[in-house]
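[agent] plan:
  1. take the single chain provided in the ticket
  2. run structure prediction with default settings
  3. attach structure tokens to the ticket
  4. add a short note for the reviewer (M.T.)
[agent] executing step 1
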Amino acid sequence: MEIDPTGRQNGRGAYLCEKQACWQRAATSNALSRALNVPLTDEAVASLTEFALGLATSEDTAVDSKDSNA
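[agent] step 2 finished; step 3 output follows
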């Protein structure tokens, strides 16, 4: 499994939003595994979790939205 931020790589894929909570949910639930029709390995879960840590949290996004309206 590879994370493709561009969404342009060939092959089967699943889209996730750019919020940390979405990626953490994907790593801890069966939703992504069902969407890809493959079981997620421990390595894939670790990769998803690591990627999620680099994303903005929902609270960060909400604050940014409020700041841009000022």
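[agent] step 4 note for reviewer: Residues 42-53 form the longest helix (12 residues).
[agent] ticket updated
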